[in-house]
Amino acid sequence: MNKVNRYSLKLSVIAFAVTLFFSCESNFKQIQQINFSEFMPTGIADTVNLKYTDSGKVKAILISSKMLDYGTVKYPFTEFPEGIDLTLYEANNKKSFVSSDYAITFKGTEIIDLRGNVKMTTQDGQFMETEQLFYDQKNEWFFTEKKFKFTDPIKGFTTGEGIDFSKDFKRINFQKVYSEINEAE
């Protein structure tokens, strides 16, 4: 093979390779997106006022300045990143009030995870504060493994780690506790 044919063959191969290289788009970003699942809320609501009713009676009112709904992820949940104010109604029309800096509920579990500066007050003046508190809506039961302080205006206060109780504070189970009890007169 002579030099001209070899030169033409090399030039043709180089031209073909350059054309092939530049004709293909860079799909690197698209390929990265194939395995990337976006974690964005499917719904965003500002100034939320939810009322839960059962048999025509209001059972709870939840107020929050922001709600994010992640209903399309593998384990759907609703998040309240700016906290909540929750009012729970008992059968005898007594109310309990719960507030927290953050809350999240996973669909299907009926459990609300309240975090940050959690405070609960009853109409009778009982008061509970902790950093994290779970509320089982189905069983109307609260529980935490964190440090807490529970105050009863008549019986005094109790501090400790770990507590679970009914929403009306009629049944309370303490774990590790330190108490100060007012003596009966």
Which terms would index this structure?
6-stranded antiparallel β-barrel; alpha+beta; lipopolysaccharide transport protein A fold; about 180 residues; about 15% helix; single chain
Give the helices and strands, then pairings.
Layout (H helix, E strand, L loop, with lengths): L2 H21 L4 H7 L8 E12 L2 E14 L6 E4 L3 E6 L5 E6 L1 E5 L4 E12 L4 E10 L4 E12 L3 E11 L5 E10 L4
GO cellular component, one term: plasma membrane
Protein name: LPS export ABC transporter periplasmic protein LptC
Keywords: Signal
The residue ranges in which pLDDT falls below 50 over 5 or more consecutive positions are none
Assign the CATH superfamily of the largest domain.
Answer: Lipopolysaccharide (LPS) transport protein A like domain
Whole-number total of structural domains: 2
The fraction of residues in strands falls at over 45%
Largest sheet: 6 strands, antiparallel, barrel
Number of DSSP E strands: 11
Mean pLDDT: 83
CATH architecture of the largest domain: Sandwich
| Structural class estimated from helices and strands | alpha+beta
Radius of gyration: 30 Å
Work out the helix count. Answer: 2
By CATH reckoning, the class of the largest domain would read Mainly Beta
The 3D shape can be described as elongated
Signal peptide: 1-17
Pfam family, one: LptC
GO molecular function: lipopolysaccharide transmembrane transporter activity
Protein name: LPS export ABC transporter periplasmic protein LptC
